[in-house]
Design a protein that fits this description.
Helix content: 25-40%
Strand content: 25-35%
CATH architecture of the largest domain: 7 Propeller
Number of helices: 12
Structural class: alpha+beta
Strand order of the largest sheet: 1-28-27-26
Shape: globular
CATH topology of the largest domain: Methylamine Dehydrogenase, Chain H
Radius of gyration: 26 Å
Number of domains: 2
Largest sheet: 4 strands, antiparallel
CATH class of the largest domain: Mainly Beta
Distance between the termini: 36 Å
Number of strands: 28
């Protein structure tokens, strides 16, 4: 069935609805992508553009949240990869493996920077420490190890579990704390300074996932069909048991700025809880047992990985007009309820004829797979000045259909000028930039063979180059401002010990050349 092109309204955001159901229903129907085997782990980069890291088989694939296509493929593994996780700045990615080692990658270049060897069995999970260049690995050899990221040196091996250590995390509010969860039913909190166990709680079942609240006061553990909530400040006192799933819970995540708890399970359900009372406010159902999920910091992207290798990516669709209509309807309903009862009066009822919206011309061409004609329609002056969002929406749909190159190929004269004029006018608009940069790259590649044949086209290409240079200069100035602000914030945190300030601590950006061990790693690409 043909689905008409969705044109994002790009209007000022309406006031947020108080209804959690309406909030989570704004997630679009998921795009389903097939991986080669079951998906072990999903992590979404905390930094823009929030790449989706999917660990599957012997590779880690990074998907772009806008196009939902593979952006990068990290395949420097001889055996299965596990638990790939981004650093907070999104520049580095750390993954465990069945090779009894961890590997550190540069996200931008895909270079293998470090290989951490010291475990005797597979490393299933890993984590970055929040305030220094230390990392932690969790292994099936029943231990966790703290490492120096820059030197590959093992700093300390924590011994205390009696079964596989399959999950763990660190605490932003307390950089000296490491948390580990094991199949021996226990979750242990370790003090990095004393190298000792500070707290241990018994979940009562093999522990699959752990989370710590941003303040560091609450510990969430998941195992079997139950989530347990513990008070860390009261010596590990059990606060609550949440039993909303009927099969093993495999993953926990925070959402909505840590105001919501999200769980995924083998029962094919994702459940979202209110953190104030731990009641379920929304349930999402999928086709297969769920092994992992990831959600972006702004809740705009939800990625779910399943046991049959299906990756489901949902994106939030903002519709301010619908929000306003829903609020007005709710107000009218409450007003009617407030009125006193009155007898029914006999009246004439008129049935309003339902109006049908005419299908846009470009959608008619898309339906017939006439991509070039559809693009011609939205390159007219009317769209150029009054409705550029429709043109960008069509570009995005062509990218999704893998038809952009076909639509742009074979253009000459005025047709080329129209495309270039649109790019020049709208390339620097932030809401269009990602899509139009992709279009520019494809179109310039197509024009490369004809460079110098048309003077007008050459002039427009120079104008486009000028716009790109202006944007680069503008972004450079913004980066300087950002650096100044980060320095001010960093200096201010030295005089505050509150959790709200400590949670904003940043990891210093260190330029890491590949180590000798990483350079010598021989890997068969898959």
């Amino acid at each position: 069935m043909f689905k008409k092109t969705y044109v994002a309204p790009f209007q000022p955001s309406a006031a947020p609805s108080s209804g959690d159901i309406l909030y989570w229903k704004k997630l679009s129907s998921p795009i389903l992508l097939k991986e080669v085997s079951s998906i072990d782990y999903i992590d979404i980069s905390p930094a823009e553009p929030h790449f989706i890291g999917v660990t599957c088989s012997s590779r880690v694939q990074l998907y772009h949240p806008i196009t939902r296509m593979i952006h990068k493929n990290l395949n420097r593994f001889k055996q299965a990869a596990f638990g790939a996780i981004f650093r907070k700045d999104g520049r580095l990615l750390l993954a465990g493996s069945d090779e009894n080692a961890m590997k550190l990658f540069d996200v931008s270049s895909k270079n293998l920077l470090r290989v951490f060897k010291g475990h005797e069995r597979a490393v299933h999970r890993c984590a970055f420490m929040p305030t220094d260049n230390h990392i932690v690995s969790y292994s099936d050899d029943k231990t966790l190890i703290q490492w120096d990221l820059t030197t590959e040196e093992m700093l300390h091996k924590y011994i205390g579990h009696t079964d596989y250590v399959r999950c763990g995390t660190t605490v932003d509010a307390n950089p000296n704390t490491i948390v580990s969860g094991s199949y021996d039913h226990t979750v242990k909190v370790w003090d990095k300074r004393e190298k000792t166990e500070a707290l241990s709680v018994d979940h009562g079942a093999p522990v699959e996932s752990v989370l710590v609240s941003p303040s560091g006061s609450l510990l969430f553990t998941a195992g079997a069909t139950e989530i347990r909530v513990w008070d860390c400040l009261a010596g590990g006192r059990l606060l609550s048991k949440i039993s909303q799933h009927h099969k093993t819970i495999t993953c926990l995540r925070f959402g909505t700025n840590s105001k919501r708890l999200i769980s995924a399970s083998l029962d094919r359900h994702v459940k979202i809880y209110d953190m104030t009372n731990f009641e379920v406010i929304q349930t999402l159902t999928y086709a297969s047992p769920i092994l992992s999920l990831g959600i972006s910091p702004n809740d705009n992207v939800l990625a779910v990985g399943m046991s049959d290798g299906i990756l489901a990516i949902s994106k939030r669709e903002e519709t301010p007009e619908e929000d306003r209509e829903e609020r007005e309807a709710l107000v009218q309903t409450r007003r009617k309820k407030a009125k006193t009862f009155s007898d029914f009066a006999v009246t004439d009822y008129g049935i309003k004829e339902k109006s049908t919206e005419a299908e846009p011309v470009y959608d008619a061409y898309l339906r017939k797979f006439r991509y070039s004609r559809a693009l011609d329609t939205v390159l007219s002056d009317n769209y150029l000045y009054k409705d550029p969002a429709a043109t960008v929406a069509l570009f995005q749909e062509l990218i999704r259909r893998d038809g952009l190159k076909k639509a742009l190929a074979g253009r000459t004269g005025k047709s080329v000028n129209k495309v270039l004029r649109f790019l020049i006018r709208h390339l620097r608009r932030p809401r269009f930039m990602r899509v139009l940069l992709h279009v520019s790259h494809v179109f310039i590649d197509l024009l490369a063979e004809k460079a110098g044949e048309d003077q007008r086209v050459d002039q427009l290409l120079l104008q486009l180059c000028d716009e790109v240079n202006k944007e680069i200069l503008y972004m450079t100035e913004l980066m300087e401002v950002q650096g100044s602000l980060e320095m001010i914030i960093s200096n201010s945190t030295e005089f505050s010990t509150g959790p709200a300030i400590m949670s904003r601590s940043t990891v210093p950006a260190v330029k890491l050349p590949p180590s000798q061990r990483a350079s010598e790693a021989v890997v068969v690409s898959v």
